[in-house]
Amino acid sequence: MKKYTIFLPLLVMLLIFSFQAAAQTGEDIRNSEKKIKVPFRPPPPSYYYIPNRMVVKFARGYPESTMKEDSNLELMSEISTLKKLNDRYGVRLFVRQFPQTDVITTANTELSKYYIVQFSEKYRLEEVMEAYRSTDFIDNVEPIGVHPVLESIPNDSYFLSDQWNFLDNEDNDIDATDAWDYETGEETVIVGDLDTGVQYNHQDLGGGAPYTNGNVWINWDEYEGESGVDDDGNGYVDDWVGWDFVDNITGAWPGEDADTPDNEPTDFNGHGTHIAGIMSAITNNSYGVAGLAGGWGTPPNGIKVMALRIGWSANYGGYEVGFVRMDFAAQAIYYAVNNGASAINCSWGSSNSGGLGAAVDYAVSQGVVVVHAAGNDGSSSADYL
Question: Within a 13 Å sphere around the CA of 378, how many CA atoms are in the beta-carbon half?
Fold first, then answer.
């Protein structure tokens, strides 16, 4: 029971951050010590769909010989109707969404039947989805939603002077210091940080170089294994701190990594690192800030943050805005569950698109806790999660 005690205060703290942030734009942020003026920034769009990609789920009885790890357009030609559709809409990509699913499946989600399809930009998304949905071999078709990350208060530098949400004399806090009398964090607990990445080499997260002695999750089979080899056989090569799922992004902010999934889930936007620090910045180490479940002192013994990059910085009207994609999120959830995560944190807007629903069902079926922030868009309407 001990390792689960961190999740309730984590959820409460994220909710407090989100509600606090809802009133920030263009207003004064007040705490017991000071007043800060936040410059106005127009809000990002609530969400949009990728115009030339979708996720399809094949129906039961679909030829198993087609559903292989290296599935491509040639293999998909077994069904003539499917080949005609692919040719008609200029399909250039038809790949399995969740790798390594030949053995790991559940009766409810059937993750091995989910595929990502990319088609020509000259066709409307709704038209293509309806064409595939109308066949007898496709069980479901989903668009791929893109949602803004839920930014909250700025990263503060010192606990006593700035982290009032943890400890405040006027009781505008979550009483973190009282909770730490019972639990400071458990290093056997792994939390998947699905976000814009994590600056895993930050001294208050990864510790000193080589950044393997802090509160960042380390895949030791890959770290100590052979470079360029999938040492643990999970389908991802050299994923020593997690994985970067971001690929094929247009309109990214200059300097942002908008392409090529790889083993470097570093954070350009900053939101994912912010969230990682809230959860597990090394506590009581005379440096930086305190994480809610960051352990106590050195060597660090807080929860381990698994860096899973599903988001990026985009140029929205001249402003840098963070977004996440639901197909990336679905793949990251699947990765987190299969690589030992105890919980998954989702501090961003969501929709039941891009295979996200199936991935969440899979996580729940495996006993993994999914935590979602309340949001800061001032809306009382809940998103999918």
Answer: 6
Closest to 309 (Cα-Cα) out of 339, 271, 341: 271
195: left (phi over 0), alpha (psi -120 to 50) or beta: beta
| Contact present, 53 and 118 (Cβ < 8 Å) | yes
In the β-sheet with 48-49, what is the strand arrangement from edge to edge? 48-49, 145-148, 319-325, 311-316
pLDDT at position 34 is 33
Distance CA 103, CA 193 (A): 26
CA atoms of 239 and 232, how far apart (whole Å): 9
Measured distance CA(84)–CA(96) in Å, rounded: 19
Q: What is the pLDDT of residues 172-223, one digit of tens each?
A: 888 887 888 888 889 999 999 999 999 999 999 998 889 999 999 999 999 9
Q: Where are the alpha helices (DSSP H) in the chain?
A: 7-21, 80-88, 125-133, 159-162, 176-179, 220-223, 271-280, 326-338, 356-365
Strand, helix or coil for residue 46 = coil
Please calculate the CA angle 88-92-93 and round it to the nearest 5 degrees. Answer: 120
Could you give the count of Cα atoms lying within 13 Å of 289 in the half-sphere of its Cβ? 25
How many angstroms separate the Cα of 24 from the Cα of each of 204, 249, 377? 27, 29, 10
Could you read off the pLDDT of 1-22 as tens digits, one per residue? 334 444 444 443 443 344 343 3
Q: Find where tokens 């080949």 sit.
A: 83
Here the tokens at position 282 are 């090394």
Q: What is the DSSP letter of 20?
A: H
- Rounded distance, CA 371 to CA 140, Å? 26
pLDDT value at position 66?
A: 52
